[in-house]
Specification:
Strand order of the largest sheet: 11-12-15-19-22-23-24-25
Shape: globular
Structural class: alpha/beta
Helix content: 25-40%
C-alpha cells in the first residue's frame, strides 16, 4: 500500500518525509499520512480507497470546466479550460466588466493541450493565451461558449511586490516595538495607540522612517491573560486593549478621577496586569457606549463597510462571552445550533443579545478610528515606510475565524515547526491553518481577506513564518507527530505581490527556521525582503564568526534579534541560560555547555566589532569583559552601528536592546504559568525617551553607520 499511498500524498501535497535538525530524511508514519489524506478530503484507509482517490484527483481537472480563479503574472496571461469534445468546436468569446459596468472583449488564442476519456465522455483541455493587455488587478471574466455563459475570476499580478520608488541605494532605519510594552505617564497600564502616536513623533524627529509593531489583532475578551499576539481569535480585527479610553467619544475627566487609584496601581507595575487593565478599559468603554445619545453616522458607515465579517465576529464574541464560564471546550462545545450557525438559532440569539453584539462592534469602531489616526499622523510626519505590521502565521483554533469559516481550515491538526537551530525540540503552535484545496476552491478569498486587513494603514507587512506560502508543518491535535502540507506556492506568491501592489505595502518574510532549498531565491525574485538578525548572520551555518556588514543581504530588514530572542544585555551575561536551567528546560550539562559556548560567542562579537571600527570614539573598548568585568560600556552603540553599516536596506532597532533590558518578551515553549511572556514593560517612559542619553547615543551611532 505504501507506494500508492505515497503517490496520493504527492498529488495532495503531503510530505512523506522531511529533513530537519537532527532528523535527516525522517520518514512519516503511514497512519499519519492516511490521516492527513482524510483531512484533505481523500480516503486512504485501504489500497482500494487509495486507488479511488487517485482516480478522482486525476479526473477532477477535466470535469471542472473552469477554475474558480486564474492567477497570472502580467507578462504571461493564460487560462486553461476543459470542454467536452462535443462542445470544443463552439465559438468562445471572453470579456470582463469594466469600472463603468460596460463589458470589454478580451482577445485570446485558443491552443489544444490534451484530452482524456472518462467513462463514455471525451474531455479536451485548451489553453487560452490572452493577447489583450490588462492592467494589474482582479477581473470578473465572462466566457461565452456557444449559447452558454460561464463566469470566473482573473487575478493579474505584477512581477514583483511593491517597493518604494527610491529604495534602490537607500539605507533606512527605524524601530520595532511591542506596543503593549510601551510605558508612559498617561496610559492605563499598557501601551496604547496614543503612546504609539507619541513615539512616532519622537522617532520621526530623530530621522526614523519605519516603526514595526507586534501583531495587534483581537485576543480573547473573557480571558485577557491569554496574551500571545500570535494566537489571536481573528486576524481581521484589532485588539481593543490598545484603545486610549481618554480619546473615546463621550469621555470626561470625571471618569479618570473615579478610577484614579486603579489606574495608578496598574500603571506602576513592571508587568502588565492584563485582567485588570482590560477589564477596567472595557468597563469604562461600556459606560460610554451606553451613554451615547444617538448613533453616529461614522459608526454606521463603519459597520456597513465591514459588513457580514464584523457581524459574525461580534456575534462570536457575544456567544463566547455568554457560554465560556459554564460550557467548557470553546465553540466546539456550544449547542449544535450555535456551533453550526443554524439560521433559526442564530436569529434567536441575535434578537436576545442585540446590545452585546452592538458593543463588540463599537469596540472595533473605536480601535479602528484611533489606529487610523495614528496612520494619518505618521503619514503627516513624512516617514518613508511608516508602520510595519506583523501578520501571524495562523490563528487560535478556538477562534472567531475558525468558527465563522471553519471549512477554510485543516481540521484535526495545527501549525507548528520541526526541530531547527533555535528550537531543538520543534514547536507545537496549535494554530489553525488554511486547507490548500479549499483556498483554491474559494478563489483564495480567506487568504486575501487576511492580507488586506493587515496591510491596512501599513507601509510594510512582515509575514510571520513566510515559508507558509509554500508549506506548513502540521501536527495532529492529539499527538506530537507531523509533516509538511504544501500550498500552490506560485499562486500564493503572485497574490501577495498583487495585494502588495494594490495596497502600496512592502513585504518582509520572516524565514528563521527550516528553509527549503531555493526558497530565498524565490522571495528575492518577488522583491520580498528577508528578515535578518545579528545572531543568525554568522558563517558556518550560524555557528562561526559574525559576518562583516558588507556580507549582509541587501533586500533585508536587519535587527539584533526578535521578540523570541534574547535582548543584547541579557545575551551578554547569559541570563537566559540560567533562566532555562531554573525552569528545567535544560539540564546542568547543557547549561555548562551553553555558558562555554556563550563565552566563545562573546569573543567573536568583540572581534567583529573591533575589526569594523564601530566602538564609540569617546567610549572605546577597555577590556575583554570576562569573568565578572561587567557589561561593556558602549556595546549597544557598537552593535547598532555595526548593523547600520550593513548593506541591508532597512535596519530596525529594538528598544529592549537600546535600554539594556534583561528579560525576554517571550520564552518559546513556555506558558504564562511558567514565565511571564508578553508582559514586560520597558524601563523608560515614552515621554522621557527623547532626552534619554542611552537612547540618543544609540540613534547617533545608527545615523553614523547608515551614512
Amino acid at each position: 500500500m505504501a507506494k500508492k499511498l505515497y503517490e496520493l500524498c504527492k498529488k495532495l501535497g503531503i510530505a512523506t518525509s522531511y529533513s530537519a535538525q537532527g532528523l535527516q530524511d525522517h520518514q512519516v508514519e503511514e497512519s499519519l499520512l492516511q490521516s492527513f489524506c482524510s483531512e484533505l478530503g481523500m480516503d486512504a484507509s485501504s489500497e482500494e480507497k487509495i486507488e479511488e482517490s487517485l482516480q478522482k484527483l486525476e479526473e477532477r481537472p477535466y470535469k471542472e470546466m473552469l477554475k474558480t480563479i486564474y492567477i497570472c503574472r502580467q507578462n504571461c496571461l493564460k487560462m486553461d479550460i476543459c470542454l467536452k469534445q462535443k462542445d470544443a468546436e463552439e465559438q468562445i468569446k471572453m470579456r470582463y466588466v469594466s469600472g463603468s459596468n460596460k463589458t470589454k472583449n478580451i482577445d485570446f488564442e485558443k491552443k489544444f493541450e490534451d484530452e482524456k476519456k472518462i467513462g463514455n465522455t471525451v474531455y479536451q483541455k485548451y489553453v487560452l493565451d490572452i493577447k489583450t493587455s490588462l492592467e494589474i488587478g482582479y477581473y470578473d471574466i465572462e466566457l461565452q461558449i456557444g449559447k452558454q455563459t460561464y463566469h470566473t475570476k482573473l487575478a493579474v499580478a505584477p512581477q514583483k511586490c511593491y517597493r518604494l520608488e527610491d529604495m534602490e541605494g537607500t539605507k533606512l532605519w527605524g524601530f520595532t516595538l511591542q506596543l503593549y510594552s510601551l510605558r508612559s505617564k498617561r496610559n492605563w497600564g499598557i501601551g496604547d495607540f496614543t503612546d504609539l502616536e507619541n513615539f512616532a513623533k519622537i522617532a520621526a524627529d530623530m530621522g526614523a522612517n519605519i516603526i514595526g509593531l507586534n501583531p495587534i489583532n483581537t485576543l480573547f475578551h473573557d480571558f485577557p491573560e491569554n496574551a500571545s499576539p500570535y494566537s489571536s481569535i481573528s486576524r481581521l480585527f484589532l485588539n481593543p486593549i490598545y484603545i486610549d479610553v481618554e480619546k473615546a467619544d463621550g469621555y470626561t475627566g470625571k471618569i479618570k478621577s473615579k478610577y484614579k487609584k486603579e489606574i495608578e496601581q496598574i500603571r506602576k507595575s513592571d508587568l502588565i496586569d492584563y485582567t485588570n487593565v482590560y477589564n477596567l478599559k472595557i468597563r469604562v468603554l461600556y459606560d460610554l457606549f451606553e451613554k451615547r445619545q444617538k448613533q453616529s453616522k461614522t459608526f454606521e458607515n463603519f459597520k456597513q463597510k465591514q459588513g457580514v465579517q464584523l457581524h459574525l465576529f461580534a456575534l462570536y464574541q457575544a456567544i463566547y462571552h455568554e457560554k465560556c464560564h459554564n460550557v467548557w471546550g470553546g465553540w466546539q462545545a456550544w449547542p449544535q445550533g450555535l456551533k453550526k450557525q443554524n439560521p433559526i438559532d442564530m436569529a434567536i440569539f441575535e434578537e436576545t443579545h442585540a446590545k452585546e453584539i452592538e458593543f463588540f462592534k463599537y469596540l472595533q469602531y473605536e480601535a479602528y478610528k484611533q489606529f487610523e489616526n495614528v496612520s494619518e499622523h505618521i503619514n503627516h510626519l513624512g516617514m518613508k515606510i511608516g508602520l510595519y505590521r506583523d501578520l501571524p502565521v495562523g490563528v487560535c483554533k478556538d477562534s472567531a475565524e475558525l468558527w465563522s469559516d471553519r471549512y477554510a481550515y485543516i481540521k484535526g491538526a495545527g501549525a507548528g515547526a520541526p526541530p531547527d537551530i533555535f528550537f531543538s525540540e520543534g514547536q507545537k503552535w496549535c494554530l489553525g491553518a488554511f486547507d490548500p484545496f479549499e483556498l483554491e476552491k474559494r478563489a483564495y478569498e480567506p487568504f486575501l481577506k487576511i492580507l488586506r486587513a493587515n496591510m491596512k494603514n501599513a507601509g510594510a507587512l512582515r509575514i510571520d513564518h513566510v515559508m507558509s506560502l509554500m508549506r506548513l508543518f502540521m501536527i495532529k491535535d492529539t499527538g506530537t507527530s507531523g509533516t509538511y502540507i504544501y500550498y500552490n506556492f506560485e499562486n500564493m506568491l503572485a497574490l501577495v505581490a498583487l495585494e502588495s501592489y494594490l495596497n502600496k505595502c512592502m513585504i518582509v518574510g520572516e524565514s528563521i527556521g527550516n528553509v527549503p532549498a531555493g526558497f530565498m531565491e524565490k522571495l528575492e525574485e518577488n522583491d520580498i525582503y528577508s528578515m535578518s538578525v545579528l545572531w543568525a548572520e554568522r558563517w558556518d551555518n550560524g555557528l562561526g564568526d559574525f559576518k562583516a556588514p558588507q556580507y549582509y543581504p541587501q533586500k533585508a530588514f536587519v535587527s539584533v534579534g526578535t521578540h523570541d530572542m534574547t535582548p543584547l544585555k541579557m545575551w551578554w551575561f547569559g541570563y537566559e541560560i540560567e533562566l532555562k536551567y531554573n525552569l528545567h528546560i535544560i539540564n546542568k550539562a547543557e547549561k555548562e555547555f551553553l555558558y562555554k559556548q556563550r563565552e566563545q560567542e562573546r569573543w567573536r562579537l568583540l572581534k567583529a566589532l573591533d575589526e569594523n571600527g564601530v566602538w564609540p570614539q569617546d567610549n572605546l573598548r577597555k577590556g575583554n569583559y570576562l569573568y565578572g568585568e561587567g557589561y561593556p560600556e558602549g556595546l549597544d552603540e557598537a552593535v547598532h552601528k555595526f548593523l547600520a553599516k550593513s548593506e541591508s536596506r532597512v535596519v530596525v532597532l529594538q528598544l529592549e536592546d537600546i535600554l539594556g533590558v534583561t528579560e525576554l518578551q517571550n520564552l518559546p515553549g513556555t506558558d504564562k504559568d511558567t514565565y511571564p511572556n508578553w508582559r514586560h514593560k520597558l524601563p523608560v517612559n515614552v515621554e522621557d525617551l527623547s532626552t534619554d542619553t542611552t537612547f540618543i547615543r544609540n540613534i547617533t551611532s545608527v545615523k553614523e553607520g547608515r551614512g
